[in-house]
Amino acid sequence: QVQLVESGGGLVQAGGSLRLSCAASGVTFSSYAMGWFRQAPGKQRELIAVISSSGRTNYADSEKGRFTISRDIAKNTVDLQMNSLKPEDTAVYYCAARWIFKNEYDYWGQGTQVTVSS
User: Fold this and answer.
1) Tell me, what DSSP letter sits at residue 86?
2) What does the pLDDT read at residue 29?
3) Is there a contact between 14 and 118 (Cβ–Cβ < 8 Å)?
4) Could you tell me the sign of the dihedral formed by the alpha carbons of 82, 20, 91, 36, in that order?
5) What is the distance between the alpha carbons of residues 35 and 86, in angstroms, rounded to a whole number?
6) What's residue 6's pLDDT?
7) CA 66/CA 15 separation, integer angstroms
8) CA gap 86, 13 in Å, rounded
9) Which residues pair with 33 in a beta bridge?
10) How many alpha carbons lie under 13 Å from residue 69 in its C-beta half-sphere?
11) 34 by DSSP, 3-state: which?
12) Alpha-carbon span 118 to 52, nearest angstrom
């Protein structure tokens, strides 16, 4: 049974940093891509960072250079380091897992709120 649990969200001032963590159980990183998504009020959910089963990373253009996704295989966690935060980064952030033989993310965490004040 796959379970994803996010933590690390909170309130931060613009220009600050936060580190989100996703504790994954029932997932073997060598068989899953892991992604971080976010959804702001009134907006669609968007993919912001992915780490593939081989450890390769990709980012949405707007987050390149500010966000870093990483994983710890021993701890089975996937982190998202967010720097130079902006008010427009305010959203609920979700961790998700995609089996390498599928195109869709099948497993989702409950989300963690990130609020960036100006």
Assistant:
1) -
2) 95
3) yes
4) positive
5) 21
6) 97
7) 10
8) 8
9) 98
10) 26
11) strand
12) 34
Under-70 pLDDT residues of the chain: none
Q: In what helix (H) or strand (E) does residue 33 lie, and over which residues does it extend? A: strand 32-39
Token look-up 């649990």 returns 5
Q: Let me know: does 20 contact 68? Beta carbons within 8 Å.
A: no
**Residues 51 and 75: beta-carbon distance below 8 Å:** no
> Would you call 80 exposed, middle or buried from its count of C-beta atoms within 10 A (0-12, 13-18, 19+)?
buried
Tell me how far apart the alpha carbons of residues 96 and 57 are, in angstroms, rounded to a whole number. 15
Q: Would you tell me how many other CB atoms lie within 10 Å of the CB of residue 14?
A: 13
Residue holding tokens 């379970």? 3
Location of structure tokens 């609020």? 115
